[in-house]
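tool_call: predict_structure(chain=1)
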Amino acid sequence: MTPWGAALDPESVLPEYPRPQLARDSYLNLNGYWQYAITGAHREQAPGDWDGRILVPFSPEAPLSGVNRHLQPQQLLWYRRTVTLPEGFAGERVLLHFGAVDSSCRVTVNGIPVGGHDGGYLPFSLDITDALAAGPAGDFPGGQHEVVVRVRDLSNTGSASRGKQTLDRGGIWYTAQSGIWQTVWLEAVPQASISRLVLVPDLTSVTATVLVDDLRSAADSTDLQAEVTVSAGGQHVAAAVVVPGTPVRIPVPDPHLWSPENPFLYDVTVRLLTDGRETDRVRSYTALRTVGTGPDDAGHLRLLLNGRPYFHAGLLDQGYWPDGLYTAPSDEALASDIRAAKDLGFNMLRKHIKIEPLRWYYHADRLGILVWQDLVNGGTAYKHAVVTAPAVGAAHRSDDDYAAFGRADEQGREQFLAELHGTVELLGNSPSIVVWVPFNEGWGQFDANAVADLLRSLDPTRTIDHASGWHDQGGGDLKSVHVYFVPFRLRKSWLAGSRAVVLSEYGGYSLRVPGHTFNDKAFGYRRFRSRRALARAYERLHRRQVEPAVAGGLAATVYTQLTDVEDEVNGLLTYDRRVVKIDAGLVRGLNAGLRRAAGG
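tool_result:
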């Protein structure tokens, strides 16, 4: 158990508002105990008898769920609970929100199908207004309403995005989890409501687009306007009235730029106006900053932050928890991982093969850490010669060989591209995100250059690492290498190109800390038996290999990794987050040395 898991109150599970950049006062959290059952995959109706209760939003495989059962591909996972809307809650429409459900689900309310979703990493919402009105309560503001969710998860037996989950866990592959794993909640909205904000900053302004869902009848339809107000410290600093759907640049006087050292956020309020009358209001935030690549004074191509070279000293961050698997046991636990990285002197986290709840990105934005965001891999079974052999020198391949990369399924490729769109739409407003990473080590990789071009068209403001590790197709903004088994040396051929060179995975030094491990296994790329030996090796690695490379033009580093995860004991922190394995002062000093070597 993590400290937060040990202190968890089942009556108050992740109660925080789940969508910080589009916040309304209307909010009813549905986390807590639900009924659950596991049945055969061919069952059409919800079971009459339930197997017990599950603590949502923890997956049944997670200890905190109270279930400790593993959903199999030939099974269905069912959830049920009743909901009573509090007095004064109901608006013109009621939306049922799911932060994420792994991986395909269908939902009924009062026995009426209201929709579903395919894909285990993106949020979705369902308009349940009519189903509530048709329920036993009649007029839906009163009485109990039944919500039933049916889930199927093929995990690594299918081609859908799955990250590092596998039914046969071990080594770098982790326990498969399924079902609801992020907050479930209800929201009341008007017939015409703000559905999304697009906030694109630069150094002196933010370009805002307000998108609206308008379900008013033709007779009621009148022109809509949106008033956008930008504030700092409670004082209004800029404002504009915009037409929904039309981007408008809003200059910000005396701009205060965002950085990890000074993560300054501007508050944003948006009011939807109908004939000058406010009909909807949301709260958000933004920051002023730019990112890119460019030369330093020595001519080395560096990553830029706010127009200046800025060295990224990062950690690989898997986002797994021993008690909650994909789901952190509390909001404070989410923030604690970021604080731990910063306390060790890192200014970047590479969020590896996972999309976190939106509150994680909120903490990254407000606490100040750069984020490299991986997309989530899918595809059918991976081949050793493609995904592993390049680590010890095997040749890179062209990724148009779909079968070799587990991507022969056209529908799976299309689903990945749709999720790419959804990921950019979901996370695009977060100022901490500075790099997109669509593919890692060939896992389900395909057409990486075309995917990088698609990403660029969706978001021209961020840097792209099109193929992290190997199977470099020559695209994106970064020459991205992983080195574990041989000493790292910066090659002149890498520096001669038009892309910044980054060491996007390295290290992986392992140490078991008795009493703080997942099991009796110890996976890592180099094993040590004492904290002293680990610290000495970590220091030698950085002083002898990494620091000279940074001085020679290496633009970023990503050490493996922030925490232990299951068999992997190569974290700087143990899996339960209770022990830091290397003296924090030593790690901070080495990271400061990397920044000095980069000229910072």
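agent: The first strand starts at residue 28 and ends at 29. Proceeding to next step.
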